[in-house]
């Protein structure tokens, strides 16, 4: 239990700190800001260090309120009883308007509460359910399960979620003041999009981020359920292996022996934990039957190219890195992506549900005649089979037949797929 005086001191300290903190404006920021006018709880999710907190800082600097970061050691004893004290502190802000008169009118002078990294605080969702009509809430978390399973019950229909990714390629260009050219794409493939890494060109931070995600967001998160104990060495070894093999197929059975575990179910749970922490994503092989899909081998992609560095030499395999970047770009706009394979294979098939819409192959350099012909043959094969358009994306120019589209990667990444289904960063499905 924490006294009200301590809570007030913590909030005042953060208010002073945030006031002088430089903010990082993200493409998703306007959509998050717009949602402040709604009654719903604004939920900002995403991998640790992707910039969620700086979005909150930007809002705080413009509109004020009360900010608490639950990773502050002064709040380590925070309990359910302390939410009532926090409520009183926030409500004392009522009537203290921001400089933005238009926003004040929209939010009807409701005080703002920002709860950062809230995933480890038991009962936060019940407090949000009770108090959200009296105040505007913005919460952040580093687990995708923030609004699933047990959390969802108390907040049904009362949230709007936004997912923050590491910097996109266009954001990277703005941060570095670069133009869109192959050279800047090469640097993006090496550094990735974590803001601090990009600003300092310090890829060594990726190891620190990785360890923090493993030990805080996975091993340290008691709200994530597993059927047995979590083995730190096995989870870390599994993560490094998968992140070192992006774009390659794997089976749960093969991973089991790698990690020295006995059961497929344990491996599935560990992979789910890595995915829940936004560290990686799993790509299924396309099949009309979901049951058949489950039986096929899968592929993995990293949340950011920086983590691909963990298990490989820095200068290795630009093809996999580019493929990983294109996958992340597609995921922002498309919910349903698969790889498709028979005797030939295509990297990505964009679908609406299980209805195929478009094929994409990615290659770093198709200058080798054999590589180019293989990529084109695979695209033609599945384009004819599914009667959908096909496209090749590469870092360098290469000739393609008229029936196959071609895009240079550094230009392709500047725009979202027009047929995509999502607004940037916004989750279509509400918690209802």
Notes on the protein architecture:
- With 432 residues, this protein is α/β, with parallel strands linked by helices.
- The protein folds into 4 domains: 4-164, Rossmann fold, CATH 3.40.50.300; 169-203, no CATH class; 209-313, Orthogonal Bundle (Arc Repressor Mutant, subunit A), CATH 1.10.10; 316-423.
- Helix content is 41%, strand content 17%.
- The chain has helices spanning 4-19, 29-34, 52-63, 82-91, 101-107, 124-131, 150-154, 169-176, 182-191, 195-200, 205-218, 232-243, 252-259, 264-276, 290-295, 318-333, 369-386, 409-412, and strands at residues 41-46, 66-69, 112-116, 136-141, 159-164, 249-250, 280-285, 298-302, 336-341, 345-352, 355-363, 390-394, 404-408.
- A hairpin with a 3-residue loop joins β9 (336-341) and β10.
- α13 (252-259) packs across α14.
- It is globular.
- It starts with a helix and ends in a 20-residue tail after the last helix.
- The model is unreliable at 419-424 and 428-432 (pLDDT under 50).
Write a concise keyword list for the protein shown above.
41% helix; disordered C terminus; alpha/beta; 18 helices; five-stranded parallel sheet; 432 residues
Largest sheet: 8 strands, mixed
CATH topology-level fold name of the largest domain: Rossmann fold
- The level of helicity is 40-55%
Q: State Rg.
A: 23 Å
The total count of helices amounts to 18
